[in-house]
Hints:
Elements: E1 3-14, E2 17-28, E3 32-36, H1 43-50, E4 58-63, E5 66-67, H2 72-76, E6 79-82, H3 94-105, H4 110-120, H5 133-145, E7 151-155, H6 163-178, E8 182-187, H7 190-196, E9 199-204, E10 207-213, H8 214-218, E11 223-229, E12 243-249, E13 252-257, H9 261-268, E14 273-279, H10 283-292
Parallel strand pairs: 3-8, 3-9, 6-7, 7-8
Antiparallel strand pairs: 1-2, 1-4, 4-5, 9-10, 11-13, 11-14, 12-13
Helix pairs in contact: 4-5
Adenosine-5'-triphosphate binds next to strand 2 and helix 1.
Protein name: ABC-2 type transport system ATP-binding protein
InterPro entries: AAA+_ATPase (IPR003593), ABC_transporter-like_ATP-bd (IPR003439), ABC_transporter-like_CS (IPR017871), ABC_transporter_ATP-binding (IPR050763), P-loop_NTPase (IPR027417)
Keywords: ATP-binding, Nucleotide-binding, Transport
Amino acid sequence: MSAVIETKNLTKSYGRTRGVADVSLAVEEGEIFGFIGPNGAGKSTTIRTLLSLIHKTSGEARIFGLDCEADKVKILKDVGYLPSEVFYYDNMRAVDLFKYSASFYKKDCSKKIGELASLLQLDLHKKIEDMSLGNKKKVGIIQGLLHSPRLIILDEPTSGLDPLMQKTFFDLIKKENARGATVLFSSHILSEVQRICDRVAIIKDGRIVSVQKINELQQSAYKAVSFTARAGADLRGFAVPGAQNLEISGQSAGFIFKGDVNALLTELGRYPLVNVDITEPTLEEIFMHYYSE
Ligand SMILES: Nc1ncnc2c1ncn2[C@@H]1O[C@H](COP(=O)(O)OP(=O)(O)OP(=O)(O)O)[C@@H](O)[C@H]1O
């Protein structure tokens, strides 16, 4: 395997404002790689820097082994990009925009444009300014995929798509991946990442805090624990090493746990319990732990 995207200590500052700092990532050929973090974490900044839409402050960024700034033109021929906010030549019809885009790639993309439009149910002959937000998003998706790129970069791609169309979209991305495309997929919606990605990088406050395989993340040592005690029991003193995000509400409590199970059971045994649940945490619960650290 070879890295399609590789960054080393990639840093971008907007004057005094933090963009991203020391981002080191490797996305391997054929992966669907998730990039997840809350709003403002630095996902779009990383992506725009990779595409040389903005200049890095320091560090290295390579795509297909080429330097993202020096070899930008060569790289972009084989990259499909769906920006988080789509701006278009509004008075054009979708079909004309696609023809115009295709002319850059010097490829006949008409068959693929037709297939994508039919799959996504987009009227190609409508003016973009007359389209709903969801249909404008579809225009962005088709524009990103029409040249069958080797690398697809999607920045929050599903906003504005209804759930049925989201499923169609995910199936489409899986199909593009099956034909050999590598995919970088940014999102703040955890269930989306869980649905489609092989590995995920978590970014927080401009820095990567973890890179993991999705299945390993779910099988990590973390457990979700919740319990309920009999009326009158005071849970405020509940404490065990390894418990995080502890929330106590009346007679019930819940937390994420990674630690000595015996210590957990001993602590639980101090309370008159009526119920205990120890389960695999959802991705949401696992990520909350990263977000709140
Ligand atoms: N053009 C800009 N000028 C100044 N600061 C910026 C600019 N663009 C982004 N930032 C700052 O950089 C940081 C990272 O923002 P970025 O948009 O990359 O985050 P994000 O993870 O993509 O979040 P979102 O989902 O909200 O777009 C934020 O603190 C943001 O305020």
